[in-house]
Design a protein that fits this description.
The chain is of the alpha/beta class. The chain is 39% helix and 15% strand. It has 26 helices and 29 strands. Strands 3, 4, 5, 6, 7, 8, 9, 10 and 11 form a 9-stranded mixed β-sheet that branches. A 6-stranded parallel β-sheet has the order 16-15-14-18-20-21. A 6-stranded parallel β-sheet has the order 25-24-23-26-27-28, sandwiched between helices.
């Protein structure tokens, strides 16, 4: 644990004061995969007592148990969870109980699992999954294969035909011995093409093809694609082709990945229907028959997927990131002539294109893809799986996030009527270079900007704007963006970046980069110190001689504990992660008020905040008021709660976008005040979660924007500028108002409520066009200053 940091104890103290739910922090720790979050939870565990200490212990165990750094962490998580479960702790919810069961199966601690299983608060499917594994002789040697198949058939297959295991033979794994007594080829009709792409296969390819040949649907064309495996694998392909006349092997001239292989196979397919099978999976004998029946029954249905279950070679279900069953993209079946001419191809990339194709189908033809309930696909989770190490509970690899964000941006266009056709030689949206078939080398970037690009908050919107301005001023500038999450209390986040970042990446103005991409840059700029305070455990591939940290506040601010940072830790982290010396770039404050005098600083400051372009507004009742909380902490949150009660009690229609913890506090205090008869509201305040709606949407309907506890001057200036751009009248606390700020100061919630209801409201205006010109010049001066020698403050 890192115990020499000055910031984490401050943050821990505020979390304790606010009584933040420990599992919110645990969820964020899993999403960020940050050691700092784990250390923070250890501080909270050690600083609390009783039930709170138990919850923080459980929260940390949940985070490290999902992705332990080593066996010691795994054992720590297991023991904490096991002790809590044994004493019947209320902190062991279904997620933690399920993880405990997984870990006990993984460690083959069968007696412990049997002992605590009756005490665990599991969902029915979770309990079923552990029951199946306890019946597996690979987990519990006292069981046998017949017990396992009986249990599996009862729990997983339901009404589908049962499975069995063939007698052991040679080195065949239990997965390769899966079978069923259902007669093959008992029904038929339209030809179905089953496509199996493969690269350097072993005996598992024979298992996969045999399971397709054993289908009850007899009219099959099975196309097995050899993705340039090499001559040493020719015997395997000859054996596969000799299995049945319906099997045909197609050989690729060069290795181009699964989806290029599928594209070629579909071009050569003769089937009315097309579906897929991974080269190491096993298909239940009724999978094709039931999928065809679903398509044939309704001409409006364009695609069908089936549920799959993930298994190891020895048929163990429990893995820390496993779900008991889910519909999966590789099982998609569609009508070839209905879909293929209009959709063109799978995206020719190395990974994730099956998910993209399914999402594209649903975006262009919403509601016309259905998922069958029976579990009809058995997925082998081997060590060589393309996705095994890129997904965990609550986390996905940053390259996957980049691809998904860009994909969803294009799919939004399809919902507005754009064509879903994707040609082989074109890109409809950017892809991470590591996903490319022929991977292009990265250039040396002029600038790589680090920020929390999934956070729709003023700092990130402001940074996206100045990045776009830099790119527009000189299109030759090579700018990359890397997503790094700072501190937040948002357990849920959208899976794509904020709109201006998505737009820039889609237009090629900037390039999205993954944290572990091997990239060289002239300089790295971090938009806020906290983004470097919670780096992921993933190895950084970014390298630059300078790491510029934009900073608008001292290391500790009394009313903003979650904005605390440790400058020494930041400098050490920048050096170890990126190889560069830290240069501090004060913004909106004098350097001596922010960083120590012996640190390197830039000579020119970034303009305080950038004025956004005109925003869309929604015609609304004049009484609509948006409340913006600039600083999340105990005292500011109480101020926001008082403001909401005062405005709502005055008959105003209050809207606010905030996280779940703040929402519970504000809503709870309002409900208590209503119960005591202290307020009477005409309109119940509308409180939105950040993942539900963009900040601009909430603001667009408002006649007035009220800022509470605004935080730094840069953040306040940005919020005010956004309010003015939306046509709202902006009100700020008199204690935060400064000369030249185009906003009206207020003294108290009650005084402001009277002013908004009775008037008059002070008129405040600003020449935004002139300010934008000044900002553009200041931005260029700051960027030019980054290229000059830096000196000590």
């Amino acid at each position: 644990m890192t115990n020499d940091r000055s910031d984490l104890p401050v943050i821990a103290a505020e979390l304790q004061r606010m009584r933040v739910n420990a599992f919110i922090v645990s969820d964020i720790a899993r999403r960020t995969d940050s050691q700092s979050h784990r250390d923070l939870m250890a501080l909270m565990r050690d600083a609390t007592e009783g039930l709170q200490q138990s919850r923080w212990s459980m929260a940390r165990a949940h985070a490290i148990g999902v992705a332990p750094g080593d066996d010691d962490e795994l054992d720590e998580a297991l023991e904490v969870l096991l002790k809590a479960a044994a004493r019947g702790s209320r902190s062991v919810g279904p997620q933690q109980a399920f993880l405990l069961g997984h870990l006990l199966v993984e460690r083959r601690r069968v007696d412990d699992l049997k002992r605590v299983l009756p005490k665990l608060s599991l969902l029915p499917q979770q309990a079923d999954m552990l029951r199946i594994d306890l019946a597996n002789p690979a987990v519990d040697p006292t069981s046998d294969e017949q017990t396992w198949t009986d249990t599996f058939n009862e729990v997983i297959l339901g009404g589908a035909a049962p499975i069995r295991l063939t007698p052991p033979e040679g080195e065949a794994s239990p997965f390769d011995r899966l079978a069923s007594d259902v007669p093959a080829g008992t029904t038929g009709g339209d030809l179905v093409t089953v496509i199996i792409s493969s690269f350097r296969p072993g005996a598992e390819l024979l298992t996969s093809v045999r399971s397709v040949l054993a289908q009850t649907w007899r009219d099959l064309e099975i196309l097995v694609i050899d993705d340039e495996s090499g001559p040493e694998f020719a015997p395997v392909y000859r054996e596969v082709e000799a299995l049945d006349p319906r099997v045909r092997v197609l050989s690729q001239a060069e290795n181009a990945g699964t989806y290029a292989a599928r594209n070629r196979a579909i071009d050569e397919a003769r089937g009315v229907y097309v579906t897929f099978q991974d080269a190491d999976d096993w298909a239940h004998p009724q999978r094709i028959e039931l999928s065809v029946a679903a398509l044939a029954a309704n001409s409006l249905v364009s695609g069908v997927r089936t549920n799959a279950v993930k298994l190891s070679d020895d048929l163990v279900l429990a893995r820390r990131q496993n779900t008991i069953r889910q519909a999966v993209a590789p099982t998609l079946m569609f009508r070839r002539e209905q879909v293929w001419p209009h959709f063109g191809s799978f995206d020719p990339v190395r990974k994730a294109a099956d998910t993209e194709f399914h999402f594209r189908l649903d975006a262009a033809l919403p509601g016309r893809t259905i998922d069958l309930q029976p579990t009809l696909q058995f997925m082998r989770m081997s060590a060589g799986s393309l996705s095994r190490d890129e997904f965990r509970s609550g986390w996905r690899h940053p390259a996957r996030m980049l691809y998904r964000s860009a994909m969803l941006t294009w799919h939004d266009e399809l919902r507005r009527g754009a064509s879903p056709y994707l040609g082989r030689e074109q890109r409809a949206f950017p892809t991470p270079r590591r996903f490319e078939i022929t991977q292009r080398p990265h250039p040396v970037y002029d600038l790589v900007v680090l920020g929390d690009w999934r956070s729709d908050e003023p700092r990130e919107r402001d940074a996206a704007q100045w990045v776009e301005m830099l790119a527009a001023a000189d299109p030759a500038r090579r700018i990359g963006l890397v997503h790094l999450e700072g501190f937040s209390l948002e357990p849920r986040r959208k899976l794509h970046f904020i709109e201006p970042v998505r737009r820039m990446i889609a237009a090629g103005v900037v390039e999205g980069l993954a944290y572990d991409d091997d990239v060289q840059a002239e300089r790295i700029v971090c938009i806020d110190p906290t983004a470097l305070s919670y780096l992921p455990r993933l190895r950084s591939g970014l390298r630059a001689p300078e790491v510029v940290v934009v900073v608008d506040r001292p290391e500790q601010v009394a009313r903003a504990p979650f904005a605390t940072y440790d400058a020494d830790f930041i400098e050490r982290t920048a050096k170890s992660a990126f190889g560069g010396a830290t240069v501090w770039s004060p913004r909106g404050v004098d350097a001596e008020h922010v960083v120590a005098v012996d640190r390197n600083i830039t000579g020119v400051s970034l303009p305080t905040a950038f004025v956004p372009g005109p925003r869309a507004t929604i015609a609304s009742h004049p009484g609509v008021v948006t409340v913006a909380l600039g600083t999340l902490a105990e005292e500011p949150l109480r101020e926001a709660s008082a403001m909401v009660r005062a405005l709502a009690g005055a008959g105003l229609d209050v809207r606010m976008r905030t996280n779940g913890h703040a929402r519970r506090v504000i809503d709870g205090e309002l409900q208590a005040a209503l119960g005591r008869g202290e307020v009477d509201v005409t309109h119940r305040p509308m409180l939105f979660f950040p993942h539900e709606v963009a900040d601009g949407v909430v603001l667009a309907a408002a006649r007035d924007l009220v800022v509470v506890a605004p935080g730094s001057r840069t953040l306040l200036s940005r919020v005010v500028a956004e309010g003015l751009a939306s046509g709202a009248r902006v009100h700020v606390p008199s204690s935060a108002w400064f000369e030249g700020l185009p906003a009206a100061p207020y003294e108290s919630p009650e005084q402001l409520a009277r002013t908004l209801v009775e008037g008059p409201v002070p008129a405040v205006t600003e020449d935004l066009h002139r300010r934008r010109a000044v900002e553009a010049a200041g931005l260029e001066a700051w960027y030019a200053g980054l290229r000059q020698p830096v000196g000590a403050g």
